[in-house]
Amino acid sequence: MRWVRDPELRRVAEKVDAGERVSPEEGLLLYQTPDLPALMRLAQRVRARHAGEKVYFVHSLRFSQTNICYVGCKFCAFARRFGEEGAWDYDVDEAVDWIAERYQPGMTELHIASGHHPKRPLGYYVELVSKIRERFPGLQVKAFTAAEIAHIAKVAKTDVAAVLKELKAAGLVAMPGGGAEIFAERVRRIIAPSKVPAEVWLAVHRTAHDLGIPTNATMLYGHVETLAERIDHMERLRRLQDETGGFMSFIPLAFQPDGNPLARELGKTQPPDALEDLRNLAVARIYLDNFPHIKGYWATITPAIAQVSLDWGVSDIDGTLVEEKIVHMAGARAPEGLSKTELVDLIARAGYLPVERDALYREIRVHAPRAA
Ligand code: V47
Fold this sequence. Notes:
It is built from 15 helices and eleven strands. By secondary structure, it is an alpha/beta fold. Ligand V47 is lined by residues 75-77, 113, 145, 176-179, 181, 216, 218, 220, 251, 253, 255-256, 260, 297, 300, 318, 326-327, 330.
């Protein structure tokens, strides 16, 4: 470990190397170290332990059945009110048609995250999932953030477990990680005062895991949160993962500054810079020692930074997406979708082994390195 010059950092590095868990204070030290090469190397070692030379991606489609939402999160550029320009609200048949127009053979994951529609009954979501499964048997439905599930339960005047059981019976296989934002109450009060509190988000995931529905977890960074609040966020996830083991991946979401009140209030015109993205991914890889994967979400950090992030702890780059809306309406500069070939090349050119997976991280195909 002579490559770590600072003695305090070296102590943490030795712990990590021995497979020991870092404390919140040590996590903060990792966030603050000026020795970025050491941080990168450490995250790389942890990454290798989890994924070897493999980098995962999925042939997926993004879908939002509605952007009608009255929750009023300040970072959001996606939500609309009824009748507002740019609003959409598909019934089940319209949703199936929308997917049919974009479906490509070989796609395995349909990722659904939407607004909190104030009126749709539980039956609508159940029918949506089952009609999609009926029409596209090869598509695994990974749908509804924990915040949406809590909202659906509230509108249906029932509990979260009942909602999840019905959705699972209809064909839901996994849940995305959105709605987590930053768990700290101070931050939530500023950026998402009407969204479900951290405890509810975590309870929904616990219930999903108990019912055999694996999930992801996100963290929206680069706005008003402190580094200690990022660590607190990851600490709460690490604890839940110790209990349930139900998380598949952790996805840091770089805050996009267009078309939302939070960016205007903060005077932000740019997303976090490349080194902030990379540092954050590396700390996450080291801190969340019980998460199988850290995702470099190319839609927010750009495909170029996602490629570099493979050396900073990332073992998954999400997927083709096709038509991502949530972060693009907030100004994301990346394309709305990438082809499978582009993803394979992005990974292979960084020196890693591209592995196509399904929504549950089952391997579909290892793409052999091409002859030079
Ligand atoms: O929770 C909204 C975020 C999330 C902005 O599980 C923004 O595999 C940046 O759930 N800048 C939804 N982010 C997206 C989501 C997701 C994304 C990628 C992978 C997975 C997964 C899940 O989008 C929301 C919110 O945190 N978001 N506005 C914005 N301005």
